[in-house]
TrEMBL record:
Domain called Inosine/uridine-preferring nucleoside hydrolase: residue spans: 4-308
The organism of origin for this protein: Dietzia lutea
Gene Ontology biological process terms from the UniProt entry: purine nucleoside catabolic process
GO cellular component terms listed in the entry, alphabetical order: cytosol
One GO MF term: purine nucleosidase activity
Protein name from the UniProt record: Nucleoside hydrolase
Alphabetically ordered keywords of this record: Glycosidase, Hydrolase
């Protein structure tokens, strides 16, 4: 069973990713080896508490859950309670849990799980890259130890940002961390081309994962469980947020799409690129700048996801995510 580490900042769509991965673990299809929580959608204390509560609701086995970076590398952490609610779970009331937090720092957990499963671990990042940036500082060999790294981050091919006109939220929170990931993988692949380039799933792809109130109703009808009730309550807040920014009463659920892609290698269309993150631009800070034509003459440090091969696209992925969560 493929060992999987999720680095997340729950967060409403992160909660869907957690529920999906736990379902896959319970079905024996993956080994959910650990969670790292990073400050992002809400502060670190809340992302940790939420992750533990969602794991409880999903019926996850005991697994290490570690607190990672408490904020970005170089700038203060800006919270956006209007997106995921003041505690990061929308309208869901999450119970406190008796599940313990791992004593290790999140960066340490990244390194130890990668070392425990050399060449096998699939890493998924659905929050800012702050903890992963610390992990690669702790162990520069990390890129060569992972089977695959799939990141929800950035926006490509001229697709507009969701935080500034050119930046996506996870990258915008901590551009220095995201850029460090790009630089570290560039160095690693320059030294050893066998190192797998991270797959960047940006808004150009993930905004296709649209969750509607009908989907919530169908999920509840399929299985009326405490987990699903809490997810539906959380999602209601996400609908309200999207409506408030003119997207309609629906929600873009980036993170479960990316978790599904991570478990289905080859399910996406992607192109090799040299990606860097703009960290200084007055109007472009947080922009993911992909060189897909080799104009910089640098080794490809990324693959940029552009499409899905699954017939039915992102909607079909969400169908699979729902079926797993309801099972
Ligand atoms: C990303 O930002 C967060 O608010 C979501 O959880 C997702 O990971 C989308 O830009
Ligand atoms: Ca997230």
């Amino acid at each position: 069973r493929t060992p999987v580490l999720l680095d997340c900042d729950p967060g409403i769509d992160d909660a869907l990713a957690i529920a999906y991965l736990v379902a896959e673990h319970r079905a024996g299809r993956i080994d959910l080896a650990g969670l790292v929580c990073t400050a992002g959608n809400v502060g670190l204390e809340d992302t940790v508490a939420n992750a533990l509560a969602w794991l409880d609701l999903a019926g996850a086995p005991v697994l290490p859950v570690a607190a990672g970076a408490p904020g970005p590398i170089a700038v203060p952490h800006v919270l956006t309670p209007e997106t995921h609610g003041s505690r990061g779970a929308g309208h869901a009331e999450l119970a406190t849990t008796t599940r313990a937090v791992d004593a290790r720092d999140g960066a340490r957990l990244w390194v130890e799980l990668a070392r425990a499963h050399p060449g096998e671990l699939v890493g998924i990042v659905t929050g800012p890259s702050s903890s992963l940036a610390r992990a690669v500082a702790l162990d520069p060999a990390l890129p060569g130890l992972l089977a695959r790294l799939v990141v929800m981050g950035g926006t490509f091919r001229g697709h507009p940002g969701n935080t500034t006109p050119v930046s996506e939220w996870n990258v915008d929170v901590d551009p220095e961390a995201a850029d460090r990931i790009c630089r570290v993988w560039e160095d690693a692949r320059a030294a050893d081309p066998a190192v797998t380039a991270p797959l960047w799933c940006g808004l150009n792809l993930t905004e296709r994962a649209v969750w509607t109130p009908e989907r919530s109703r169908a999920l509840l009808a399929a299985a009326d469980t405490p987990l699903i009730r809490a997810l539906v309550d959380a999602l209601r807040f996400y609908f309200e947020f999207h409506e408030s920014v003119g997207e309609g009463y629906l929600a873009q659920v980036h993170d479960p799409l990316v978790a599904w892609i991570a478990l289905h290698p080859g399910s996406e269309v992607s192109e090799p690129a040299h990606v860097r993150v703009e960290c200084t631009g007055e109007h472009t800070r947080g922009m993911t700048v992909a060189d897909v034509r080799g104009q910089r003459g640098r080794v490809d440090n990324a693959r940029v996801a552009t499409d899905l091969l699954l017939p039915g696209g992102a909607g079909a992925v969400l169908d699979e995510v729902c079926a797993a969560i309801a099972s």
